[in-house]
Write a structure and sequence with these properties.
Length: 315
Protein backbone atom coordinates (compact mmCIF):
# COMPACT_ATOMS: atom_id res chain seq x y z
CA UNK A 1 0.00 0.00 0.00
CA UNK A 2 0.99 3.63 -0.50
CA UNK A 3 2.29 5.61 2.45
CA UNK A 4 0.19 8.70 3.18
CA UNK A 5 2.49 9.91 5.98
CA UNK A 6 6.21 9.15 6.24
CA UNK A 7 8.13 10.46 9.25
CA UNK A 8 11.83 9.65 9.32
CA UNK A 9 14.29 10.20 12.19
CA UNK A 10 12.33 13.16 13.56
CA UNK A 11 13.88 15.18 16.39
CA UNK A 12 12.25 18.12 18.16
CA UNK A 13 13.93 19.86 21.08
CA UNK A 14 12.80 22.60 23.44
CA UNK A 15 16.07 23.77 24.93
CA UNK A 16 17.51 20.83 26.86
CA UNK A 17 14.26 18.85 26.60
CA UNK A 18 13.88 16.39 23.71
CA UNK A 19 10.19 16.10 22.83
CA UNK A 20 10.73 13.81 19.82
CA UNK A 21 13.72 11.48 19.88
CA UNK A 22 14.47 10.18 16.35
CA UNK A 23 10.84 9.21 15.78
CA UNK A 24 9.90 7.09 12.77
CA UNK A 25 6.25 6.78 11.77
CA UNK A 26 4.36 5.55 8.70
CA UNK A 27 0.64 5.75 7.96
CA UNK A 28 -0.55 3.62 5.04
CA UNK A 29 -3.38 4.53 2.71
CA UNK A 30 -6.79 3.34 3.90
CA UNK A 31 -5.79 2.31 7.42
CA UNK A 32 -6.54 3.62 10.88
CA UNK A 33 -3.20 3.95 12.65
CA UNK A 34 -3.32 4.41 16.40
CA UNK A 35 -0.59 6.54 17.95
CA UNK A 36 -0.66 5.40 21.54
CA UNK A 37 1.23 6.89 24.44
CA UNK A 38 0.89 8.60 27.81
CA UNK A 39 0.23 12.29 28.22
CA UNK A 40 3.40 14.13 27.30
CA UNK A 41 4.85 11.30 25.22
CA UNK A 42 5.14 13.46 22.08
CA UNK A 43 1.92 12.60 20.23
CA UNK A 44 0.67 16.17 19.76
CA UNK A 45 4.19 17.44 19.02
CA UNK A 46 4.50 14.83 16.27
CA UNK A 47 1.18 15.88 14.76
CA UNK A 48 2.12 19.56 14.80
CA UNK A 49 5.35 18.71 12.99
CA UNK A 50 3.50 16.57 10.43
CA UNK A 51 1.13 19.47 9.71
CA UNK A 52 4.08 21.89 9.42
CA UNK A 53 2.72 23.89 12.34
CA UNK A 54 5.95 23.41 14.26
CA UNK A 55 9.59 23.54 13.22
CA UNK A 56 11.74 20.52 14.06
CA UNK A 57 15.47 20.07 14.52
CA UNK A 58 16.20 16.98 12.44
CA UNK A 59 14.53 14.46 10.16
CA UNK A 60 12.06 14.55 7.28
CA UNK A 61 8.29 14.41 6.80
CA UNK A 62 6.36 13.49 3.67
CA UNK A 63 2.58 13.68 3.28
CA UNK A 64 0.97 12.36 0.08
CA UNK A 65 4.52 11.56 -1.08
CA UNK A 66 5.55 15.23 -0.95
CA UNK A 67 7.78 17.02 1.54
CA UNK A 68 5.50 18.79 4.03
CA UNK A 69 6.20 22.49 4.55
CA UNK A 70 4.17 25.51 5.76
CA UNK A 71 3.61 26.34 2.05
CA UNK A 72 2.11 22.90 1.19
CA UNK A 73 -1.39 24.30 0.58
CA UNK A 74 -2.53 21.58 -1.81
CA UNK A 75 -1.63 18.86 0.69
CA UNK A 76 -3.29 20.71 3.56
CA UNK A 77 -6.58 20.93 1.63
CA UNK A 78 -6.62 17.12 1.61
CA UNK A 79 -6.21 16.89 5.40
CA UNK A 80 -8.75 17.21 8.21
CA UNK A 81 -7.43 17.97 11.68
CA UNK A 82 -9.41 17.58 14.91
CA UNK A 83 -7.41 19.07 17.77
CA UNK A 84 -7.28 17.79 21.33
CA UNK A 85 -8.61 21.12 22.59
CA UNK A 86 -11.95 22.08 21.09
CA UNK A 87 -11.37 24.74 18.43
CA UNK A 88 -14.65 26.43 17.48
CA UNK A 89 -15.86 30.03 17.35
CA UNK A 90 -18.10 30.94 20.28
CA UNK A 91 -19.87 33.74 18.38
CA UNK A 92 -21.11 31.36 15.64
CA UNK A 93 -23.78 28.70 16.02
CA UNK A 94 -23.27 25.03 15.11
CA UNK A 95 -24.07 25.35 11.41
CA UNK A 96 -22.17 28.62 11.03
CA UNK A 97 -19.08 27.10 12.65
CA UNK A 98 -19.02 24.13 10.30
CA UNK A 99 -19.65 26.39 7.30
CA UNK A 100 -16.81 28.70 8.32
CA UNK A 101 -14.23 25.93 8.64
CA UNK A 102 -15.43 24.26 5.45
CA UNK A 103 -15.10 27.60 3.60
CA UNK A 104 -11.36 27.51 4.26
CA UNK A 105 -11.20 24.66 1.74
CA UNK A 106 -14.35 24.97 -0.40
CA UNK A 107 -15.24 28.33 -1.99
CA UNK A 108 -18.37 27.22 -3.88
CA UNK A 109 -21.25 28.25 -1.57
CA UNK A 110 -23.79 25.83 -3.07
CA UNK A 111 -21.44 22.87 -2.84
CA UNK A 112 -20.41 23.89 0.68
CA UNK A 113 -24.02 24.08 1.86
CA UNK A 114 -24.53 20.44 0.92
CA UNK A 115 -21.25 19.39 2.54
CA UNK A 116 -22.12 21.20 5.78
CA UNK A 117 -25.53 19.48 5.88
CA UNK A 118 -23.87 16.10 5.36
CA UNK A 119 -21.36 16.78 8.15
CA UNK A 120 -24.14 17.82 10.54
CA UNK A 121 -26.05 14.63 9.77
CA UNK A 122 -22.92 12.52 10.06
CA UNK A 123 -22.16 13.65 13.63
CA UNK A 124 -25.85 13.72 14.66
CA UNK A 125 -26.26 17.45 15.29
CA UNK A 126 -29.43 17.98 13.23
CA UNK A 127 -31.40 19.14 16.28
CA UNK A 128 -28.66 21.57 17.39
CA UNK A 129 -27.85 23.52 14.21
CA UNK A 130 -28.77 26.93 15.64
CA UNK A 131 -27.36 26.32 19.10
CA UNK A 132 -24.30 28.26 20.24
CA UNK A 133 -21.21 26.27 21.35
CA UNK A 134 -21.51 27.43 24.98
CA UNK A 135 -24.95 25.80 25.13
CA UNK A 136 -23.65 22.38 24.06
CA UNK A 137 -22.69 19.52 26.36
CA UNK A 138 -19.10 18.27 26.28
CA UNK A 139 -20.01 15.35 24.04
CA UNK A 140 -21.95 17.51 21.56
CA UNK A 141 -19.11 20.04 21.50
CA UNK A 142 -16.68 17.27 20.59
CA UNK A 143 -19.00 16.21 17.77
CA UNK A 144 -19.08 19.79 16.50
CA UNK A 145 -15.28 19.86 16.64
CA UNK A 146 -15.13 16.72 14.50
CA UNK A 147 -17.70 18.06 12.01
CA UNK A 148 -15.60 21.22 11.54
CA UNK A 149 -12.57 19.06 10.76
CA UNK A 150 -14.20 16.66 8.29
CA UNK A 151 -16.87 18.70 6.46
CA UNK A 152 -14.59 19.28 3.44
CA UNK A 153 -14.26 15.48 3.03
CA UNK A 154 -10.50 15.14 3.54
CA UNK A 155 -8.55 12.11 2.37
CA UNK A 156 -6.44 12.11 5.56
CA UNK A 157 -8.01 12.75 8.96
CA UNK A 158 -5.86 13.38 12.02
CA UNK A 159 -7.63 13.15 15.36
CA UNK A 160 -5.72 14.14 18.49
CA UNK A 161 -7.43 12.57 21.52
CA UNK A 162 -10.98 13.48 20.38
CA UNK A 163 -12.72 11.65 23.24
CA UNK A 164 -11.05 13.42 26.18
CA UNK A 165 -13.59 14.38 28.88
CA UNK A 166 -16.69 13.03 27.11
CA UNK A 167 -19.35 10.66 28.42
CA UNK A 168 -19.33 6.96 27.39
CA UNK A 169 -22.24 7.33 24.95
CA UNK A 170 -20.61 10.24 23.13
CA UNK A 171 -17.31 8.34 23.09
CA UNK A 172 -18.95 5.36 21.42
CA UNK A 173 -20.65 7.63 18.88
CA UNK A 174 -17.32 9.29 18.06
CA UNK A 175 -15.52 5.96 17.63
CA UNK A 176 -18.29 4.60 15.39
CA UNK A 177 -18.14 7.81 13.35
CA UNK A 178 -14.39 7.40 12.85
CA UNK A 179 -14.89 3.82 11.66
CA UNK A 180 -17.50 5.05 9.17
CA UNK A 181 -15.17 7.76 7.85
CA UNK A 182 -12.57 5.07 7.27
CA UNK A 183 -15.12 2.84 5.51
CA UNK A 184 -15.91 5.79 3.24
CA UNK A 185 -12.27 5.94 2.19
CA UNK A 186 -10.45 8.23 4.63
CA UNK A 187 -7.05 7.35 6.05
CA UNK A 188 -6.98 8.07 9.78
CA UNK A 189 -4.21 8.89 12.26
CA UNK A 190 -5.71 8.59 15.74
CA UNK A 191 -3.88 9.54 18.92
CA UNK A 192 -4.93 8.45 22.38
CA UNK A 193 -3.73 7.40 25.80
CA UNK A 194 -6.80 5.17 26.17
CA UNK A 195 -5.61 1.64 25.43
CA UNK A 196 -9.10 0.19 24.90
CA UNK A 197 -10.00 2.81 22.25
CA UNK A 198 -6.93 2.04 20.19
CA UNK A 199 -7.50 -1.72 20.51
CA UNK A 200 -11.10 -1.32 19.34
CA UNK A 201 -10.50 1.11 16.51
CA UNK A 202 -7.11 0.72 14.88
CA UNK A 203 -5.69 -1.57 12.20
CA UNK A 204 -2.13 -0.95 13.40
CA UNK A 205 -0.72 0.62 16.53
CA UNK A 206 2.45 2.60 17.18
CA UNK A 207 3.35 3.00 20.87
CA UNK A 208 5.58 5.93 21.79
CA UNK A 209 7.06 7.08 25.08
CA UNK A 210 9.60 9.79 25.74
CA UNK A 211 9.28 10.97 22.14
CA UNK A 212 10.44 7.70 20.55
CA UNK A 213 8.76 4.62 19.14
CA UNK A 214 8.93 1.66 21.49
CA UNK A 215 6.68 -0.84 19.68
CA UNK A 216 4.62 -1.16 16.51
CA UNK A 217 2.30 -3.68 14.86
CA UNK A 218 -1.23 -5.02 14.87
CA UNK A 219 -2.84 -5.72 18.22
CA UNK A 220 -2.07 -9.44 17.96
CA UNK A 221 1.51 -8.80 16.82
CA UNK A 222 2.14 -6.49 19.76
CA UNK A 223 0.62 -8.84 22.31
CA UNK A 224 2.77 -11.66 20.91
CA UNK A 225 5.84 -9.58 21.85
CA UNK A 226 4.96 -9.53 25.54
CA UNK A 227 6.46 -11.96 28.00
CA UNK A 228 3.26 -11.76 30.07
CA UNK A 229 1.30 -14.99 30.17
CA UNK A 230 -2.33 -15.98 30.09
CA UNK A 231 -3.73 -16.26 33.60
CA UNK A 232 -6.58 -18.55 34.63
CA UNK A 233 -8.51 -17.95 37.85
CA UNK A 234 -10.66 -20.66 39.40
CA UNK A 235 -12.65 -20.90 42.63
CA UNK A 236 -11.47 -24.18 44.14
CA UNK A 237 -11.98 -23.86 47.89
CA UNK A 238 -9.28 -25.94 49.53
CA UNK A 239 -6.56 -27.78 47.64
CA UNK A 240 -4.15 -30.19 49.21
CA UNK A 241 -0.47 -29.41 48.84
CA UNK A 242 -0.16 -32.58 46.75
CA UNK A 243 -2.89 -31.42 44.33
CA UNK A 244 -1.32 -27.97 44.05
CA UNK A 245 2.09 -29.47 43.35
CA UNK A 246 0.55 -31.74 40.68
CA UNK A 247 -0.86 -28.68 38.91
CA UNK A 248 2.49 -26.89 39.10
CA UNK A 249 4.15 -29.79 37.29
CA UNK A 250 1.80 -29.60 34.28
CA UNK A 251 3.81 -28.70 31.14
CA UNK A 252 1.80 -25.57 30.32
CA UNK A 253 1.85 -24.17 33.88
CA UNK A 254 4.48 -21.58 34.77
CA UNK A 255 3.10 -20.85 38.24
CA UNK A 256 0.11 -21.87 40.37
CA UNK A 257 -0.83 -19.92 43.50
CA UNK A 258 -3.74 -20.54 45.89
CA UNK A 259 -5.05 -17.48 47.74
CA UNK A 260 -8.18 -17.62 49.92
CA UNK A 261 -9.85 -20.30 47.84
CA UNK A 262 -8.95 -18.81 44.45
CA UNK A 263 -6.40 -20.55 42.28
CA UNK A 264 -4.34 -18.40 39.90
CA UNK A 265 -2.54 -20.34 37.18
CA UNK A 266 0.02 -18.51 35.04
CA UNK A 267 0.39 -20.32 31.73
CA UNK A 268 3.03 -20.54 29.07
CA UNK A 269 2.45 -19.58 25.45
CA UNK A 270 -0.35 -21.65 23.95
CA UNK A 271 -3.90 -21.61 22.60
CA UNK A 272 -5.59 -24.32 24.67
CA UNK A 273 -4.51 -23.62 28.24
CA UNK A 274 -8.04 -23.36 29.63
CA UNK A 275 -9.20 -26.65 28.17
CA UNK A 276 -5.97 -28.33 29.32
CA UNK A 277 -6.51 -27.08 32.87
CA UNK A 278 -10.13 -28.28 32.88
CA UNK A 279 -8.93 -31.70 31.77
CA UNK A 280 -6.38 -31.70 34.62
CA UNK A 281 -9.12 -30.78 37.14
CA UNK A 282 -11.19 -33.74 35.95
CA UNK A 283 -8.26 -36.16 35.95
CA UNK A 284 -7.14 -35.24 39.47
CA UNK A 285 -10.68 -34.88 40.84
CA UNK A 286 -10.37 -31.19 41.69
CA UNK A 287 -13.74 -29.52 42.28
CA UNK A 288 -14.09 -25.92 41.10
CA UNK A 289 -16.69 -23.18 40.78
CA UNK A 290 -16.41 -20.04 38.68
CA UNK A 291 -13.47 -20.04 36.27
CA UNK A 292 -12.17 -17.28 33.99
CA UNK A 293 -9.08 -16.54 31.93
CA UNK A 294 -7.22 -13.26 31.38
CA UNK A 295 -5.17 -12.89 28.21
CA UNK A 296 -2.14 -10.59 27.92
CA UNK A 297 -2.99 -7.02 26.92
CA UNK A 298 -1.25 -4.08 25.28
CA UNK A 299 -0.98 -2.58 28.74
CA UNK A 300 1.10 -5.60 29.80
CA UNK A 301 3.47 -4.88 26.91
CA UNK A 302 3.64 -1.19 27.77
CA UNK A 303 4.34 -2.03 31.41
CA UNK A 304 7.10 -4.46 30.40
CA UNK A 305 8.83 -1.95 28.14
CA UNK A 306 8.49 1.20 30.22
CA UNK A 307 7.92 -0.09 33.75
CA UNK A 308 4.87 2.19 33.93
CA UNK A 309 1.11 1.90 33.60
CA UNK A 310 -0.12 3.84 30.57
CA UNK A 311 -2.58 6.06 32.45
CA UNK A 312 -0.35 6.58 35.48
CA UNK A 313 2.53 8.14 33.56
CA UNK A 314 2.80 11.75 32.46
CA UNK A 315 6.33 11.81 31.06
Amino acid sequence: MNSIIEVNDLVKRYGDFTALNHLNLEVQQGEILGLLGPNGSGKTTAINCILALLRYDHGSIKVFDQAMTPASKDAKRRIGYVMQSVGVIDELNVRENIDYFCSLYVSDAKKRKQMVSEAIEFVGLQDFQKRMPKKLSGGLLRRLNIACGIAHKPELIILDEPTVAVDPQSRNNILEGIKELNRLGATVLYTSHYMEEVEQLCDRITIIDGGKKIAEGTKSELIAQTNSSEKIYAEVGDLSEAQLETLRKLPFVAEAVLNHGELCVSCGKGDNNLSALLAAFEKHKIDFGHIRNQLPTLNDLFLEITGKELRDTHA
